[in-house]
Design brief:
Order of helices and strands: HHHHHHHHHHHH
Radius of gyration: 19 Å
Helix content: over 70%
Structural class: mainly alpha
Number of domains: 1
Mean pLDDT: 87
Low-confidence stretches: none
Number of strands: 0
Oligomer: single chain
Shape: globular
Distance between the termini: 27 Å
């Protein structure tokens, strides 16, 4: 393997590891802090460095006509998505949330068909059917297995919240799509973080009261990882990936993030996924792979 190939492989591995472990780090934080306050603090700490990076890289600010789309991406695609996801992880394993929120591309494809008249190809339809069959298996099996049992309502709510997070992210992506080629990535990411912080701070105050007054070392480590490694380093790596590889390659690598999150959750956090969770997740990821292949 050549030096360039080794660098590409290392870059791809780091990309998958960071985006997979993002769920596990969030789970560590929300087990100690209320999810909205945890996420509000995360965005408040992430936004200033992102603004500084946008300035240092000479990123151009979005045109006036694109500001609304950047704001919607921050409101729905970043803030709304992560709010539902972090809320979900307060009651269900991080690996399960990673698998469920991986359905975002399925929702985007359905939204494009319904709103933009883009008819999926037969291969894409097969991917959609397989993907949603996996979600149905995963959610239905959990509902059937835990119906009436103590704590079952929290598990079902967690899966529903993760699905709402995927739907919120899909809505943000659809709203932002027309501006994607015009807006600088660094300025868009910084703007989305500011909007997300503005959304989460009042929500946390209204729904969760006063901010957390103390934190364990593990909580602070999870928060630092979410801010520095995921919120800043993860996006820097994503932008590098988009310059180095075709977009289809980055999309395909993202399919590996949920299994990575599940393995880390099992090994480091003691999380357990049932066979139906794994089977449903495998079906969903297979459907996503078919969808990406058909659209490519």
């Amino acid at each position: 393997m050549t030096g360039d190939a080794l660098r590409s492989a290392a870059l791809a591995a780091a990309f998958v590891l960071i985006w997979g472990s993002a769920f596990n780090a969030a789970r560590v934080v929300v087990l100690d802090w209320p999810p909205f306050w945890a996420l509000a603090i995360r965005f408040a700490l992430t936004a200033p460095p992102l603004l500084a990076l946008a300035w240092l890289t000479g990123a151009r600010m979005p045109a006036r006509g694109d500001l609304g789309r950047v704001a919607l991406m921050g409101l729905l695609g970043t803030g709304g998505y992560l709010a539902f996801s972090w809320w979900a992880m307060a009651s269900v394993p991080s690996g399960l949330v990673a698998i469920v929120t991986a359905t975002t591309p399925l929702m985007v494809a359905l939204g494009e068909a319904a709103l933009l008249g883009r008819r999926p190809t037969p291969g894409a339809w097969l991917g959609l059917v397989l993907g949603w069959a996996g979600v149905a298996l995963l959610g239905g099996a959990r509902l059937a297995a835990h119906a009436g049992a103590p704590g079952s309502a929290g598990e079902v709510l967690g899966v529903a919240l993760a699905l709402l997070g995927a739907a919120s992210q899909a809505a943000g992506l659809l709203a932002f799509a027309p501006a994607r080629g015009r807006v600088d990535l660094w300025s868009a990411t910084a703007g989305q973080s500011l909007v997300s912080a503005a959304l989460l701070l009042p929500l946390a105050l209204v729904l969760e009261g006063a901010p957390p007054a103390e934190a364990a070392a593990r909580t602070l480590a999870g928060l630092a990882y979410s801010v520095l490694v995921v919120g800043i380093g993860g996006y820097a790596l994503l932008f590098l990936m988009l310059r180095r590889f075709p977009p289809s390659t980055a999309a395909a690598l993202q399919l590996l993030a949920p299994p990575v999150a599940a393995v880390i959750g099992w090994a480091a956090l003691g999380e357990v996924l049932g066979w139906t969770d794994l089977a449903g997740g495998a079906l969903t990821l297979a459907g996503l792979a078919l969808l990406f292949r058909a659209r490519r």
